[in-house]
Amino acid sequence: MLLCKRDNISRLVINFMEETAQKPRWYIIHTYSGYEQRVERTIKEMMRTGQDKGLIEEIVVPTEQVVELVKGQKKTSTRKFFPGYVLVKMVFNDESWHLIQSIPKVTGFIGSKNKPSPITDAEADKILSTVQSRKEQPRPKFHFARGDEIRVVDGPFANFNGVVEDVNYDKGKLKVSVSIFGRQTPVELDFVQVSKS
């Protein structure tokens, strides 16, 4: 009777391990900085041609849209959240490990050398939802906080220096105290009209 229970428990443990080993999880790949998109394209090509044998489910280079002023024009550009890192959802085994490691400009996985640690589903969901929200609403190139010293680069107050009094990220506006004729005057400016001093 005791032997049957041990066999059942052993079978349950083995089944659980096999199921979890075959479940795709999110892993973080470390790449040379600046080569994230190239690694992403290579993996997508492997997925398209079937070289991955269905082991790779999804790949994401976390980026956000940023707005800046260039030569008087608002310009939206893409900035990486985590330069040098790529997220991949895949079934981890020796074959998938070797497949990723063989890609040029990949230095390895985050975690121990031969057994990378997956990130939790909650962490992956948080990163992916942040990426999605930042695609919908571009952010300023600089992060501003109350008390930051700034320089106005566009508009009627161009070349004036000021201090940030209030930040409204939803509207993309700053309330800045600017010295005009020796008096501190509050003005409201767009994020793209200023740069950090």
What do these coordinates show?
One of its GO terms (cellular component) is ribosome. Residues 23-131 form the NusG-like N-terminal domain. Residues 143-170 form the KOW domain. It holds the Pfam family KOW. GO terms for molecular function: structural constituent of ribosome. It is a single chain. This protein has 197 residues and is of the alpha+beta class. It folds into 2 domains: 24-140, Alpha-Beta Plaits (2-Layer Sandwich); 149-196, SH3 type barrels, CATH 2.30.30. It is 30% helix and 36% strand. It contains 4 helices and 12 strands. It has helices at 2-22, 36-49, 94-101, 121-136, and strands spanning 25-31, 56-60, 63-70, 73-80, 85-90, 106-109, 139-140, 149-152, 161-168, 173-180, 183-190, 194-196. The strands form 3 sheets. A 5-stranded antiparallel β-sheet has the order 11-10-9-8-12, with no helix packed on it. Strand 3 and strand 4 (73-80) form a beta hairpin. The longest helix has 21 residues, at 2-22. The model has no long low-confidence stretch (mean pLDDT 83).
What is the fold-level CATH name, i.e. the topology of the largest domain?
Alpha-Beta Plaits
Strand content: 35-45%
Which regions contain 5 or more consecutive residues with pLDDT less than 50?
Answer: none
Radius of gyration: 25 Å
Find the structural class using helix and strand composition: alpha+beta
Query: Class of the largest domain, according to the CATH hierarchy?
Result: Alpha Beta
Shape: elongated
What percentage of residues falls in helices of 4 or more residues? 25-40%
Counting copies of identical and different chains, the oligomeric state is single chain
In round numbers, the mean pLDDT is: 83
Question: Count of DSSP helices?
Answer: 4
Label the CATH architecture of the largest domain. 2-Layer Sandwich
Number of domains: 2
